[in-house]
Amino acid sequence: MSVPGALHGHIVLVSGAAGGLGAAAAVACAEAGATVVLLGRKLAPLNRVYDAVKAVGPEPVLYPLDLEGATPDDHDQLAQAIQAEFGRLDGLLHCAAEFKGLTPLLHTDPADFARAIHVDLTARWWLTQACLPLLMKAPAGAAVFVLDDPARTSGAFWGGYGLAQAGQAALVGMLQAELGETGPRISGLRPGPMRTGLRARAYQANADREARPPGEYAAACVELLSPAGAAWRGRVREVSAA
Asked: Rounded to two decimals, what is the model's pTM?
């Protein structure tokens, strides 16, 4: 459960909002008082999350956008829409991810490799870059990158997805160093194994006894987006399921 009121009056953008953790985090943010902007590829799944979020908190905003094909101008248009509607952005939560499955690098389709690097690293940065001016307008703006475990994804067969995880971990510290102690907070969240469609591409569900429901990590998302997350400025927080 998220802390009631921890995000009261906040505007939070969740990318990958129709995914396992994205959907759970969006609901948790709404329960904590935030108005959530739901960003995702497909409208039908977003509508289902919209209904769940609206049932527990302020009415959310839908923004369909395919990160794979979106240009920097598309990200800027999103930021302009948030600026026009709210005048600022208090939190940005990166949950969108791309992973086709375990494949040797030698046999990886070049397009799949490029797609993973783009969605899991480049597009996340483009979205952050577009939103930074809005985060700077908030009293305590925060961007949170959900990351995978490098002990696993730096091993064999993880391809572009694994390389992008390493890049994001470096980005958290690099960007915070540039923004300093008074700028928006940049942090990472490294949850434990989650029972999601992405993980199912690497592990057999009936044999994956470590994975937990993604909702068990939603409260950590809220914490990092809230003022309580200040202790994790420029750092990656590892969280185990309860």
From this structure: 0.94
- What type of residue sits at position 139? P
Q: Is the pLDDT of residue 1 over 60?
A: no
Per residue, the 3-state secondary structure of 153-204, as one string, reads HCCCCCHHHHHHHHHHHHHHHHHHHHHCCCCCEEEEEEECCECCHHHHCCCC
Catalytic residue, from 50, 63, 161, 203: name it: 161
DSSP state of 216: G
State pLDDT tens for residues 102-129: 999 999 999 999 999 999 999 999 999 9
The Cα 104–Cα 102 span in angstroms is 7
Q: How confident is the model at residue 189 (pLDDT cuts 50, 70, 90)?
A: very high
Give, for 233, the enclosing helix (H) or strand (E). Answer: none
Residue 161 annotated as catalytic: yes
Name every residue whose Cβ is closer than 8 Å to that of residue 170 and which is 6 or more positions away in sequence: none
